[in-house]
Amino acid sequence: MPTDLNIEWTEAIEANVRYFRNPLWLKSYFDHVHRDAGFRERWIAAAGVLDDRIVVDVGCGPGNVFATLGGRPRRLIGIDVASEALEHARQLGYDPLLADAQNMPLSSGIADLVIVNASLHHCNDMSAALKEAARLVAPGGLLVTDHDPQLSAWNFKGPGKWLWDLRLRLYHWAKIGFHASLEEQSVALASEIHHRPGDGVTRHFFESTLRPLGFDVEIFPHNHRLGANVLHGGWGKADFKYRLGQRLSSIEPDAPEAALSLMCRARRRLPGESPLDRQDVEAVI
């Protein structure tokens, strides 16, 4: 497997590797995460079908995105730090590359589509990872990110923060998802270094990073439930537990700022193309 020998092995990267080294955790993640119909509909609406395109999936894990979207890409490159996850992705059709998303040994402008799903918040430097992903996009190509926590939605304070801290014990007691095992819970949380109160992504983060690099940027907040309607102004309704924590933190749960995740679709302009302002972008949707 092609491997970048210059990876800086931080605690977060080590946690990601350790998580996917466990075959039971890997299988559970692949079988249940980002595999629903709403995810597929939302991504096809945002990114289009993968057929005949050169696609780079940054932080691909075991290959969940391609397994859900399907298609016949001309080439599909999967980048991750976990060799076990990459081997699983290879069996699905990925060309695996073991490398850090913050410093990828690939030429600039090679991809028609760069996918970054649920990956930025695992990177020590989210800005560096986003810029690296953008560097790979060819003129006229797309960069699509999703499932990174919106800072304003998770900025729990006071009683809401107390409830957030208590959730780990409650989830473990109820055997919910990766919280069923204390070891799995600990490793998963250690890898999600920007998924905590007071941290996460914002509209400004995406726009201020990507617009100077020649991208037109669209941001779509959502609560993980809706499909293509997210791209037309819908964001859905979060589960009660999140809404309760938000209310206890003086966050209005029905506002777009309370949507749990931000999807970003950014198109690299062709040479000589003028940037679109936000009103122009909304008119195109």
Automatic annotation (TrEMBL):
Keyword terms: Methyltransferase, Transferase
Domain Methyltransferase type as annotated: residue spans: 56-144
CDD domains listed in its UniProt record: AdoMet_MTases
Single GO MF descriptor: S-adenosylmethionine-dependent methyltransferase activity
Lineage: Bacteria, Pseudomonadati, Pseudomonadota, Alphaproteobacteria, Hyphomicrobiales
Annotated protein name in UniProt: SAM-dependent methyltransferase
PANTHER family according to UniProt: TRANS-ACONITATE 2-METHYLTRANSFERASE, TRANS-ACONITATE 2-METHYLTRANSFERASE-RELATED
Source organism of the structure: Methylocella silvestris
Protein's UniProt keywords contain Methyltransferase: yes
Superkingdom of the source species: Bacteria
